[in-house]
Amino acid sequence: MTTAVSSSAPLGNESIITGEAIELEVRPASGPLRALAGIIDAGLWVATGIFAMLMYTRFGPVLNPAQAQTLLILGIAALTFGIPFLIEWLTGGRSLGKTVVGIRVLREDGGPVRLRHVFVRALVGVVENWATFGALATVVSLANARGRRLGDLLAGTYCVRMRDVESDPYPLVLPPELTEWVRTADIAPIPSNLSNRARIFLTRSATMSPQARQTHAESLAAELEGFVSPPSPAGTHPERFMAAVLVRRRNEEYLSLLRHREAVR
User: What pLDDT digit, counting tens, does each position of 128-167 carry?
Assistant: First the structure.
């Protein structure tokens, strides 16, 4: 025997919403972890550079000066930008050093990084990691709470511990009575700050007083309504409305991620 779910009832624990199975209460990676990851990555690039220089020393003499200079420039560009960019893009925000210490790069709203985020991080990294030998990255990361370097600030990303990211103790559930509505609804791009606040609220709502919970739910739902058309069915509880919208957004992120993984295979 099944029990009908009322659209006017608040959400229970089954409605915890995350993007790409990401728990929202993740902790930013600590400075020492990021530093260790950077040292490991730098060691890999230095070893690769030494190997490349040995090959250049061996085969360089057979090239004319213009060819040798071009090869040298391409090699430096590959080591400082090209290879780090490709690795982080293909692995979804990881590198050898990050994988070893257990951290990963995410967007500010908790979603997986995209090509644009990785490109900005890699491009700025040429200056802050290589041109200044990591000094600029260190100073900037010490100046903000999440330990974000300049590339993170410009790209809208930050590093988190992977064991926090990959934990998802709750099933992802779309309120069943809103399935048909959210399937056909037109949902415009939602600002990262708003979607993140809605997700955090849903994870913490059970610990709030009933009055504060209702007030916050109505306020956030009112903000989200501006990005959704048509409105949800009359009488829908604001928490269930938020859950439906965020599940739809999460599903779209899943599909985008799957398409990306298929494209790089």
Answer: 988 998 889 889 888 887 788 999 999 999 888 876 554 4
- The DSSP string of 82-141 is IHHHHHHHHTTS--HHHHHHTEEEEETTSPBP-HHHHHHHHHHHIIIIIITTTHHHHHHH
Distances (CA, A) of 178 to 15, 19, 251: 13, 19, 15
Query: 158: which strand partners?
Result: 106
The structure's pTM equals 0.56
Q: Contact, 202 vs 15, CB < 8 A? A: yes
246, 199 Cβ separation under 8 angstroms: yes
Instruction: Out of 14-23, 91-100, 169-178, pick the least confident.
Output: 14-23
Greater confidence (203 vs 34) lies with 34
Which residue carries 């967007």 as its tokens? 107
